[in-house]
Amino acid sequence: MGAGFCFSKENMHGRLACRLVKEFNSGEKGQLNHFNEELLNEVAKECSENFLVLQSLIRKMQEEGLDFQTTRNADHYGALINHLSLIRNKRCLLAYVYNRAEMIQNLAWTVGLRLFELPEEIQEKLSHPEKEYFKKHSSALESYMSKVDLDLNVDMVPPKDPYIKVRVLDDVGEGIVVSDKAANFARHSMHFLKRTDAELYISRGLMEELTG
């Protein structure tokens, strides 16, 4: 997603929406910025103002008995400017929300299906509606996988070996059950685990795969 449609000068119409899209594009690829609720609300407010002015100018021309389709006066061009501003602002809002939603969907595949599994620094960047969206998206995935009896959230790349060697990076806890066996994952300890057992801990940054 680009900011190509934010081509106008930094005038009053569309300036805030252009900032919103540029802010999204300024983040690292695949990384979320903090949800800018304040700026989004300002753009939505501008949309409402554009619509009210547009309605007022069209009504004024109608009351004067002028044909809006053919008349070319100040009211006509004022209405046109507000109409175009309204359309572009809405496009910017949709682009901002849609692209963030796509990234949030990807979190369910790359990090985990539970909100608490997301690192705190990611959770802090989500708005409340985005957190609810993540929960509902994850719930839909879990429901589908349960019906087809297949875990689609593991082995995104076909593994060469079902077992991998891992090192524990942070305390996971004692008596953790993996593959029906209890294990103690002390910090810096190394284990030979099934890939499906280890992937959850690797995605959460609690373990790392040892290669070579």
Helix content: 40-55%
The CATH architecture category of the largest domain equals Up-down Bundle
| Unreliable spans | 1-11
Largest sheet: 3 strands, antiparallel
DSSP, total strands? 5
Lateral strand order in the biggest sheet: 4-1-5
CA(first)-CA(last) distance? 38 Å
Strand content: 5-15%
Taken together, the total number of domains comes to 2
Task: From the alpha carbons, calculate the radius of gyration and give it in angstroms.
Answer: 26 Å
Q: Quick check: average pLDDT?
A: 84
- The class by helix and strand makeup works out as alpha+beta
The CATH topology of the largest domain comes to Methane Monooxygenase Hydroxylase, Chain G, domain 1
Give the oligomeric state.
single chain
The CATH class of the largest domain is identified as Mainly Alpha
Shape type: elongated
- Number of helices in the DSSP assignment: 6
Series of H and E elements: HHHHHEEEEHE
Q: TL;DR?
A:
This protein has 2 domains: 133 residues, Methane Monooxygenase Hydroxylase, Chain G, domain 1 (Up-down Bundle); 48 residues, Ribosomal Protein L9, domain 1 (3-Layer(aba) Sandwich), CATH 3.40.5.
Explain how this protein is built:
This protein has two domains: 15-147, Methane Monooxygenase Hydroxylase, Chain G, domain 1 (Up-down Bundle); 163-210, Ribosomal Protein L9, domain 1 (3-Layer(aba) Sandwich). It is an alpha+beta fold and 212 residues long. Helix 2 packs antiparallel against helix 3 and helix 3 (74-110) packs across helix 5 (128-148). The protein is built from six helices and five strands. The two termini are 38 Å apart. A hairpin with a 2-residue loop joins strand 2 (173-178) and strand 3 (181-185).
